[in-house]
Amino acid sequence: MSLPRLLVLTDRTQCRGSLTATVATAVDAGARAVVLREKDLPLAERALLATELQALLTPVGGVLVWAGAAGSAGRAAVHLSAADPLPTPRPTWLGRSCHTAAELARARAEGCDHAFLSPVFLTASKPGHGPALGLAGLAELVPHGPPVYALGGIGPDDVAGCLAAGARGVAVMGGVMRDPSSVRDHLAALTG
Question: Does the predicted model carry a pTM greater than 0.85?
């Protein structure tokens, strides 16, 4: 399994319509990997939502990534928080959220396939998280872990700088949840 260079993270509180409709628009705009967060929902409700989103991604060869250890059994792609235990059995594709060199080194030692490194920039989606790493901090930390996706306040104009700093790709939540058609601009920046 290989993940594309753009990962879309869900946050239904930022959508103008339903989360499913927002993701459908993002997929139509070219998104091929979606990380289902929504950890506040009961597991059964999240599982139903995962089925809906997977139905949008399957026809385009996309992948749904389950966020968190809870409910991850049997999922092919799982993304863990910094504190989550490793799931058993190990999913086919495994990622972890990281904020420091030590967390990145742990993710590498665990054999994670990718890591989110955040926050690169301050973001309205998660106020109070920081301080922001900036591009220099991103470049300094990237070598400590598995392939890194830059996360946190990443707009299309920031993509080139993140790639130049060594990121494999970018993970975007708020910007895409508020305007899912912005996926096109992120993809253009990733290939430009």
Answer: yes
